[in-house]
Design a protein that fits this description.
- This protein is an alpha+beta fold and 553 residues long.
- It has two domains: 41-284, 3-Layer(aba) Sandwich (NADH Oxidase), CATH 3.40.109; 336-528, 3-Layer(aba) Sandwich (NADH Oxidase), CATH 3.40.109.10.
- The protein contains 15 helices and 20 strands.
- The chain has helices spanning 8-16, 78-89, 152-159, 174-181, 185-206, 219-226, 288-296, 324-330, 345-353, 398-405, 430-436, 456-463, 467-488, 501-507, 547-550; strands at 43-44, 47-50, 91-97, 100-105, 116-122, 133-138, 143-148, 165-172, 210-214, 241-249, 276-277, 343-344, 373-379, 382-383, 388-392, 421-426, 448-455, 492-496, 519-528, 537-539.
- The strands form five sheets. It has a seven-stranded antiparallel β-sheet with strand order 2-7-6-5-8-10-9, sandwiched between helices. The protein has a six-stranded antiparallel β-sheet with strand order 16-15-13-17-19-18, sandwiched between helices. Strands 4-3-20 form a three-stranded antiparallel β-sheet.
- Helix 1 (8-16) runs antiparallel to helix 7 (288-296), helix 4 (174-181) packs across helix 5 and helix 5 (185-206) crosses helix 13 (467-488).
């Protein structure tokens, strides 16, 4: 259902789903393990096309992914498409404890619940399919399920006719998150979509491909293209809602035009859809607040958007000596920090620099919106910097605007150079970081933690209520940068979805209340030395596949 450009719905939802010291957002109250949703969508009756497992290029250093075009493009064939999907949305390992087993993926997810699904609109691909088609990616068995074969004439307006481009439509099963998190789950689904966007852009860069979120299409268009408007096929309470569409181009650099949306979406409705989506749970709980915000934040067709550079800071860096495939496959969410491991100033600033949108920078060239989020940092253990509260201003005018709200801070630039990092106040803020993140020690025991604060009401009022989602996508995209940069620096990161919304803004000197929603904290993160749980056994990502499929090319 399209919205009526009324932002009150998303504002009301955001207010209702705040956590605070006086109480938490409405949730289930207990874990109904018998009805935990299946994290893997399958389409019963659809033809399954297995993809080959590929080791990937060992000579592509992680630093090579910083800038688009640094890696020569590889052709669109079975092995390269397989590597792209594995490193963006596929499995990276399994964990096992006392008979329980669960999968980890390249794209992180709140609670490891994985609401995100992916549908591809692809041309004929050597070794995969002789005809163009619409496919669902099945990460558990690492293959594609054919949902429709509409013909090239139908798909060419969107993917071109040279066989080098395809579309990836991301969608969310909100029930997978609300099963555990209740009403606040909608926020987490949007975070996860942003993480998936980041993982897709990094995987594309490793192959020399280009990938860009398309700003124009409406939810209704994407639902029709991916077959998600066939709501009668999905079990009650388990429907999928479109997030966004990403154009991926594997052509030569001079020919790359990823990011173009046709004037008219192709008519796939006339084609025969194949397969029936599996049932994920026997029973469901309906959260009306999620239904309401889903309707309020539905995206209409909008104008194209252009990438906006926030700064020219952040020069190219030398090689890490670590293959990009290794960084992506070993990314994990820390479950605890050791409380002692720090980070040197150079590495810390390097991590922050990569969160800045710069021309040609990955993954930011895939996100066609001006930066709307800045980082409020609790620095605990960074050599060369005093502990305290800092602001990293990602938008060109963010520092000036935030300083006007809270002029009593020091507002000192302690690092020099072009990085927009400001010291607000010195001191040991570990207790404050812990308290504002729902009392979680992990926010105090790392080298630093942070809250991502958004130009909240300004963006939503200017762009429409659907922009509530893209603010969270940007937060997830920042989070994906932090995850991979932490791994490259020999540290580990974790996203924190439980935090006290208003208390965080009060720390930053903001008045809070129902009429004061100018800036809001949308996502928290921590980076430091991880504590591994040696009780858990680790299994290979695809150990469960037949032996003939487990050998990597």
């Amino acid at each position: 259902m399209e919205n009526e450009e009324n932002p009150k719905g998303v504002f009301a939802y955001h207010m209702r789903t705040k956590h605070g010291r006086r109480g938490f957002a409405p949730g289930p109250g207990f874990m109904d393990w018998a009805n935990q949703p299946d994290p893997f969508r399958r389409y019963d009756g659809a033809e399954f096309l297995a993809l080959p497992l590929v080791a990937g290029p060992a000579d592509v250093d992680f630093s090579s992914l910083d800038r688009a075009g640094s890696v020569p493009p590889r052709g669109l064939d079975a092995e390269n498409l397989s590597l792209f999907l594995e490193l963006s949305l596929g499995l990276t390992a399994w964990k096992e404890y006392q008979g329980s087993r669960w999968a980890l993926r390249a794209n992180p997810s709140s609670g490891n619940l994985h609401p995100s699904e992916c549908t591809l609109l692809a041309p004929p691909i050597e070794g995969v399919c002789e005809q163009p088609g619409i496919f669902h990616y099945a990460p558990l068995d690492h293959g594609l399920e054919l949902l429709q074969a509409p013909g090239m004439r139908t798909l060419a307006p969107l993917i071109g006719d040279d066989g080098t481009s395809f579309l990836a439509i991301l969608s969310s099963v909100h029930w997978r998150e609300s099963w555990k998190y209740g009403e606040r789950a909608y926020r987490y689904c949007q975070h996860d979509a942003g993480h998936a966007l980041g993982s897709i852009r990094y995987a594309a860069a490793l192959l020399g491909w280009r990938a860009r979120l398309l700003a124009e299409p409406s939810d209704a268009e994407l639902a029709a293209l991916a077959g998600l408007d066939r709501t009668d096929l999905f079990a009650h309470g388990e429907s999928e809602v479109p997030d966004f569409c990403i154009a991926v181009d594997a052509g030569a650099p001079a020919d790359m035009e990823a990011g173009t949306w046709g004037r008219a979406a192709p008519d796939t409705a006339a084609g025969e859809w194949l397969g029936t989506p599996n049932r994920l749970s026997e029973q469901h709980v309906r959260w009306r607040a999620i239904d309401d915000v889903e309707a309020s934040a539905a995206k209409p067709r909008t104008e194209s958007a252009n990438f906006t550079e926030s700064t020219k800071a952040g020069a190219e860096r030398s090689d890490f000596g670590i293959a990009a495939t290794d960084i992506i496959r070993r990314r994990r969410s820390a479950v605890a920090m050791d409380g002692t491991t720090g980070m040197d100033k150079e590495a810390f600033l390097g991590v922050l620099a990569r969160t800045l949108p710069r021309a040609g920078s990955v993954p930011w060239d895939g996100f066609p919106f001006a930066p709307a989020l800045s980082l409020a940092l609790f620095v605990h253990r960074v050599g060369g910097l005093p502990p305290g509260l800092y602001l990293f201003a990602r938008g060109l005018d963010h520092a000036e605007r935030l300083r006007a709200v809270a002029p009593d801070f020091i507002w000192r630039e302690p690092v020099g150079g072009d990085l927009p990092l400001y010291l607000l106040t010195e001191g040991d803020l570990r207790n404050a970081a812990r308290a504002v993140s729902c009392g979680q020690d992990i926010a105090a025991d790392g080298a630093f933690s942070l809250g991502m604060i958004a130009d909240f009401s300004g963006i939503i009022e200017a762009e429409g209520p659907w922009a509530y989602r893209r603010l969270h996508w940007e937060a997830g995209l920042i989070g994906q940068v932090l995850y991979l940069e932490a791994e490259a620096a020999g540290r580990r990161a974790t996203g924190i979805g439980c935090f006290f919304d208003d208390e965080m803004m009060e720390i930053l000197g903001h008045d809070v209340g129902p009429e004061r929603e100018a800036w809001r904290s949308l996502y928290h993160f921590t980076v430091g030395g991880a504590v591994d749980d040696d009780r858990l056994a680790t299994l290979d990502a695809y150990h469960h596949l037949p032996e003939e499929r487990r050998t990597r090319a």
